[in-house]
Design brief:
heterodimer; A: about 110 residues; mainly beta; 7-stranded mixed beta sheet; 4-stranded antiparallel beta sheet; about 0% helix; B: about 110 residues; 6-stranded mixed beta sheet; 5-stranded antiparallel beta sheet; 11 strands; globular
């Protein structure tokens, strides 16, 4: 799985609580991405990083923040979780800015009750 | 605005048949068209990809057909097997980074009946 570890794999949390998802890679790729996957919507980009401390917003960034203090780690934080953020979250990495190739982790299933 | 439209949403094919999934795009700046395969509980995995300078690319039983003038591309799975049952995503990229990187279709849930 291209050396990508997402943690936790499953999480149930309550509305209004903060949640942090972690992505750790061992490939030393510069580019890292957070996507969410929802039925009928496919994969939508939340945030991405093009280097340590260099991040930017994607298509569905509202309610999410990210941080990247080391090449290998990319954190996704939901400051105050809402039920609309119930989803499966995927981290992805790529050695190029174009996403060729893009390798995904196995996801975190988050349920906000 | 959906930049990559994928169809059908779901598809049932008999074992040994041909599975065909179609995608259409509007942005003529797209220059890289990959297909991803996703099994339950796993992340999507790159299956096959094509650039617009060729009309077809084949890897084993998987073929991408590309029609630049129609702005369409499709995935053909020959001799479909139950192990091919998965969700398939098409995508397109302009070669730019981040938010200008890969744009995904909404996915096709493929079931191969034995």
């Amino acid at each position: 799985d291209a050396g990508i570890t997402q943690s936790p794999r499953h999480k149930v949390t309550e509305t209004g609580t903060p949640v942090t998802l972690r992505c750790h890679q061992t490939e030393n790729h510069r580019y890292m991405y957070w996507y969410r996957q929802d039925p009928g919507h496919g994969l939508r980009l939340i945030h991405y990083s093009y280097g340590v401390k260099d991040t930017d917003k994607g298509e569905v960034s509202d309610g999410y923040s990210v941080s990247r203090s080391k090449t290998e780690d990319f954190l996704l934080t939901l400051e105050s979780a809402t039920s609309s953020q119930t989803s499966v979250y995927f981290c992805a990495i790529s050695p190029t800015p174009s996403g060729f190739p893009l390798h995904f982790g196995n996801g975190t299933r988050l349920t906000v009750t | 605005q959906q930049q990559v439209k994928q169809s059908p949403q779901s598809l049932i094919v008999q074992k040994g048949g041909i599975s065909i999934i179609n995608c259409a795009y509007e942005n003529t700046a797209f220059d890289y068209f990959p297909w991803y395969q996703q099994f339950p509980g796993k992340g999507p995995a790159l299956l096959i990809a094509i650039r617009p300078d060729v009309s077809e690319k084949k890897e084993g039983r998987f073929t991408i057909s590309f029609n630049k003038s129609a702005k369409q591309f499709s995935l053909h799975i020959m001799d479909s097997q139950p192990g091919d049952s998965a969700t398939y995503f098409c995508a397109a990229s302009t070669g730019g980074g981040g938010a200008d990187g890969l744009t995904f279709g909404k996915g096709t849930h493929l079931i191969i009946q034995p």
